[in-house]
Amino acid sequence: xxxxxxxxxxxxxxxxxxxxxxxxLDFQKMIQPIxxxxxxxxxxxxxxxxxxxxxxxxxxxxxxxxxxxxxGFNAWVTHSEIAHATAPTxxxxxxxxxxxxxxxxxxxxxxxxxxNPTVRKYGNAYYLYYMGNTGDDKQTEGLNFTHRNNQRIxxxxxxxxxxxxxxxDHPLIDVSSDSTAYDALMVSNPSITIRSDGSxxxxxxxxxxxxPLPFGGPVVHLTATSTSPxxxxxxxxxxxxxxxxxxxxxxxxxxxxxxxxxxxxxKDMQGFFTNKGRSLALFDSExxxxxxxxxxxxxxxxxxxxxxxxxxxxxHLERPQIFxxxxxxxxxxxxxxxxxxxxxKTSYNIQIPLKP
Length: 356
Known about the structure:
Elements: H1 2-16, H2 27-30, E1 39-40, E2 45-54, E3 60-68, H3 76-79, E4 81-87, E5 95-101, E6 113-122, E7 125-133, H4 145-148, E8 152-158, E9 186-194, E10 200-207, E11 219-226, E12 234-235, E13 250-258, E14 261-268, E15 279-285, E16 291-300, E17 303-305, E18 311-313, E19 316-325, E20 328-340, E21 343-353
Antiparallel strand pairs: 1-21, 2-3, 3-4, 4-5, 6-7, 7-8, 9-10, 10-11, 11-12, 13-14, 14-15, 15-16, 17-18, 19-20, 20-21
């Protein structure tokens, strides 16, 4: 009884003025053990990331990045393609169906590589946001910087999750012409949500030319808004998810709007925000432009728990995406891999159950 009185006293000002009290999300408490079927891998391909949608029949559609293992892990930047798989449940087992965004003419901005999909439904259409690039088409042991620095952001549109997908001959988000801009070198990794006023907020990764090339930097995240899911988008050019003087503090944002707040899960590159090393961190925002660490900032470290009771530590846990069931976060999708003697021999998508 005493605890209830204290809680009412805390909440009273907000209740008195008609404000909705929004509790802070605690993802660590929401994460559940992972079924064995919720690991999607392919012996011939590296698999990375994944965006999940459900159709009218109850079938689940996964869009993900893949590239042949024979090219090596760093061929994500030269040989990735966005593929499509389906499953009867959000936890698999998933079966490959087709390549949603295959290679096309090299002269086109996304002609040789498509990567990191995020799928949304707005109105009666589906929108597949992604990174695309082109370049010299050379497989390199390290990162091919010709392709890396040609990364741009695109969107493909379809009326059915099985496609076909209409692609465009120009990027949705291009680099800024100002050589001093935060996104003058390359842009990538789009995430989008619809705002309370019906407009669209897109957050993306940008790299400046202020640090030595070819890597450049700093690597930051920026916002852009539009009244249409296919743009044009207006850039705000104010970096977010930054940490002091770090050249590359965060990556792979996934954003959404829930209960009057904007949320973002990002890859914390070195534990700048969570103090847990390489991890996933939660941010929130009142307006989508000014972001702060959430009260429960740690989403996950590199350790996962399988339904068998086995704990497993990954080398990387990245590309967070959420699947919502009836407006509630139900599945956290992540890309994962394990290194052996410094070499990544396989990677896959994992679908983690979430407790409301």
